[in-house]
Amino acid sequence: MARTVAIIVGSVRKDSINLKLAKALVKLAPSDFDCDFVRIDDLPVYNQDLDRSPPESVSRTKSQIAAAKALLFVTPEHNRSLPTALKNVLDWVSRPYGKNLWAGKPAGIAGASIGAIGTAVAQAHLRSVLGYLDVPTLGQPEVYIHFSQGLIDEHGNISNETTKNFLQTFMNRYAAWISEYN
Ligand code: FNR
To answer: The pTM is what?
Structure first.
């Protein structure tokens, strides 16, 4: 049976390097993965007043997360933390109180940056938030991609063999690890 994996890209930018990385990871996923990209660019700013009757975009996102067996976050770093759009979807899907739909779903984390430390600080902050949301996270290997021009194209093709082998190792480990939860 197919395993539905929700892919949450922390960038809403059309030419996002993290979207390229996410597409590369999807290409390296085992054949029983059903990868479902979660749209986050049309979610309004989180507002607790709307918890009980959320806008359609929020309901759609919640349904996607509820249907997923596992999560894969692929995110940039913004000002040494996770991007606003990513924190926003984490907040929406965690509420109303007592109905946190993230809970118990195993998550992998990866990120790409044009900077030298490749999203390490953003990922540390994300792990902290996910811990509170009762989301177990894969510890190793950590995926901090220092993105150089042409490393991954818009279809997810990887030009560097070492990077490709490393991402394949990550994907294999992630696929085996989430089996412990499903
Ligand atoms: C950045 N960038 C960045 N990079 C980094 O390594 N650490 C950081 O703290 C930041 N901060 C930051 C803030 C803001 C507001 C922007 C727009 C950018 C640079 C970042 O790595 C680069 O823009 C990537 O291309 C972002 O990823 P996407 O959107 O292409 O996936």
So the answer is: 0.98
Please state the atom number of ligand 1 nearest to the C-alpha of residue 15: 30
CA–CA separation, 111 vs 147, rounded Å?
A: 10
Query: Which ligand 1 atom minimizes the distance to the CA of 116?
Result: 6
Pocket test residue of 16, 23, 77, 121 for ligand 1, highest count of atoms within 8 A of CB: 77
**ipTM value > 0.85:** yes
The CATH class, in words, for 3-178 is alpha beta
Q: Is 96:58 a contact under the CB 8 Å cutoff?
A: no
Is residue 106 predicted with pLDDT exceeding 90?
yes
d(CA 78, CA 125): 11
Ligand 1 in contact with 77 (CB < 6 A)?
yes
Q: Name which of 67, 75, 61 is nearest 21 in CA terms.
A: 75
Our CA angle for 89, 40, 94, nearest 5°, is: 20
